[in-house]
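Archive entry: two folds, one per protein. Generate the first.
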Amino acid sequence: MEQKDFEIEAKRIRPLLYRQALHYLNNSDDADDVAQEVLIKLWSIRRQLEEYRSVEALALVITKHLCFNRLRKVTYPMCDWSKENITDETTPEDVYITKEEAGRIEEMIKTLPDIQQATLRMKHIDGLEVAEIARIIGSSEVAVRTNLSRARKKMMNYFHINK
């Protein structure tokens, strides 16, 4: 694809890419960044674009994957170990054990498949509702519940076996 043809195609699909990214990310700046990143990726493979039946479909798939990657990379604070969590009866050993368990939980969460990891974090760490998670990741509520159930089951099996 020549530069002029690419520019025409980019101007045509950029608003579509932006809307899809905004749907997933709920942040206009991030959506704009993703749309721009998709166009850069398409530019880098512009010579092979004629091999695809639909450049638009390819761009939308890339957009979806980049959005999911961004959602996965969001860091979440695991626990707040401030003084309000420590009472007069809390021993240094209790604090150490609690922190160690939180670290084990965080490590286990990192081993889950990406979508289970993201849904588990959104539900239990961010406190989002299933419907909101489904809207953010562009999935059905049933799929979100299924992923949450599978993630919880893996977590329970891990800690049951390793206790």
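Generate the second and append.
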Amino acid sequence: MTASNKTLRTCKQGHQYYKSTDCPTCPVCEQERKPQEGFLAILSAPARRALEHNGITTLAELAKYSEKEILQYHGMGPASLPKLRNALQEAGLSFKL
């Protein structure tokens, strides 16, 4: 068994947490800001942040992009695409071709 290299960190809100990477995201803050409904609520935190960082917060905005374009965003992985496709389809939309 290998030793963990996690370090104790404190975010700007005062939450303390351990991280083994240089990722600055506080898991407590991230959980608090996770939407309770809508298509962003069904995504992982990195995928949600990728869309939000690029100004995509509605399905209408998402429909302006192709799947290939969305996959280029840091934090967005192929496992998120079926969820996004379904959300778009339920709204009568689709990814740009």
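Annotation attached to the second fold: The chain has a mean pLDDT of 91. The CA atoms of residues 56 and 62 lie 6 Å apart.
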